[in-house]
Amino acid sequence: MLATAIVVFREVLEAALIVGIVLAATRGLAGCGLWVGAGVMGGLLGATAVALSANAISAAASGVGQEILNASVLFVAVVMLGWHNVWMSRHGRNLATSLAGVGVAVRGGARPMHFLTAAVGLAVLREGSELVLFLYSIAASAPSTSGDMLGGALIGVAAGIATGAGLYLGLLRIPASRLFTVTGWLILLLAAGMASQGAAFLVQADILPTLGERLWDTTALLSDEGALGRVLHTLIGYTARPYGIQLLFYLVTLLAIMGLTHVVNRPRRGAVSSNATLPARSTAQASR
Amino acid sequence: MIKRSLLFTLSLLSALTIWLFSALPAFAADASYTLKIKDHRFDPALLEIPAGKKVNLTVANLDLTAEEFESHDLKREKIIAGKGQALITIGPLKPGTYRFVGEFNESTAQGKIVAK
Predict the structure, then answer these.
(1) How far is CA A21 from CA A73, A188, A198, A234, in A?
(2) Which residues constitute the domain of residue A35?
(3) Which of A42, A85, B54, B92 is most buried, judged by most C-beta within 10 A?
(4) Is A226 part of any domain?
(5) What is the band of A273 on the pLDDT scale with cuts at 50, 70, 90?
(6) How many domains is chain A partitioned into structurally?
(7) How far is residue A151's CA from residue A156's CA, in Å, rounded to a whole number?
């Protein structure tokens, strides 16, 4: 029962943390729960489809179909997260000082939720397909103990969701004026970590070179396999034994999103600010 | 609006997937080995391979249920469907011992690769 709970918890954890961050990042947006819910549902549907075709996916592309699918899902999620950050920096910049202001911006026609809904869906898709396969395998392999296993699975799901909820509630304690700055950084690190994870899958598929098999080894300090290592793996892309190419993908993603954010954030001459009515103080505060 | 963004996400996903497919390598490995999974155990549980060489490892799952081959030492994780098999390319490895597990049945599915 405990073994089942642990495996399920691991699979749920990553998606739950991402959902927690996204929920906090969209706080105050009209119908944000609905958008995130749509992402989770879409992800679960996709996960079931992927699980059902696991054999076909594995066999595809000379046996590395799974790695290619994983990497693609991760990279598209990176684009979605980055896109959201760039959008926020442009439209949400001056509005971020008040939650209501962001709601107005969203009703005003620009909708950043698409990107985050897609990112949530992709995260759930990736982890969910493994979860579906695992749950199916315990249900099929040991009918006599499946009640016990089911209990373990439920505990694992509950613990995973509780961790995500804990992160969400923790983020909500941040004052509204700072919240979007913090979630912006979290999403940035999340995206960079995902890019590095995607690169590792392409190394596994023998498509990318490692550029250094083992840049460093901090397993003794903080193992990939422990709870904290796993949480940090999702949140900031921590890995105890990174390939060179993982660091490269991490840094390029970080710099690309920060660079784009900076470029669109640059005040343009002649442009009429839609937020001109806000006090100057909040503008200064937000752009700091 | 949802439809459009879903369409956009899916097309981006497929474009990337197809592009990566086209970048496929030739899988030039120096040696090939097969690892079986039966009753949630690896056979052989200890596999010796040459160090410094690229090795193709075929993992054949004889069980009805899926397994996830996972090795933090080798930095590999791959789902192997029930009654399915998967190819995992490893190495070139430095001499040493590399642990791997079947994540779905970690209590029994454990093994080691020794590179010599």
Answers:
(1) 19, 11, 20, 11
(2) 2-262
(3) A85
(4) yes
(5) very low
(6) 1
(7) 9
Which ipTM did the prediction report?
0.86
Locate the domains of chain B by residue range. 29-115
CATH domain B29-115 topology: Immunoglobulin-like (2.60.40)
Cβ within 8 Å, pair A76-B1: no
- Give the type of residue at A175: P
> H or E stretch including A124?
helix A113-141
Q: What is the pLDDT of residues B72-84, one digit of tens each?
A: 999 999 999 888 8
**Nearest CB partner across the interface for A200, out of B63, B75, B107:** B75
Which residue of B20, B69, B85, B101 to mutate against A (max A Cβ within 10 Å)? B20
Highest mean pLDDT among A79-88, A250-259, B85-94: A250-259
pLDDT tens for each residue of A66-92:
999 999 999 999 999 999 888 887 766
Evaluate whether residue A58 is within a structural domain.
Answer: yes
Residues A35-47: what's their mean pLDDT? Answer: 93
The pLDDT confidence band at residue A202, using thresholds 50, 70 and 90, is very high
CATH of the domain at A22: 1.20.1250
Q: Which residues of B touch A66 (CB under 8 A)?
A: 78-79, 86
- Considering only CA atoms, which of A164, A126, A127, A162 is closest in space to residue A24? A164
Secondary structure percentages of chain A, helix, strand, coil, to 5: 75, 0, 25
Residues from chain A that touch B76, judged by Cβ atoms under 8 A, are 204
Whether chain B has a CB inside 8 Å of the CB on A123: the answer is no
* Residue A278 belongs to some domain of the structure: no
pLDDT exceeds 90 at position A27: no
B47 close to B28: Cβ distance less than 8 angstroms? no
Angle at CA of residue A81, ends B10 and A260, nearest 5°: 115
Q: Is residue A195 part of a domain?
A: yes
Q: Considering only residues A212 and A196, tell me which one the structure prediction assigns the higher pLDDT.
A: A196
Element (H, E) at A127: helix A113-141
Q: Evaluate whether A29 touches A106 at the Cβ level (below 8 Å).
A: yes
A206, A216, A233, A241: best to mutate for the B interface, most B CBs within 10 A: A206
Do A134 and B66 make contact, defined as CB atoms within 8 angstroms?
Answer: yes
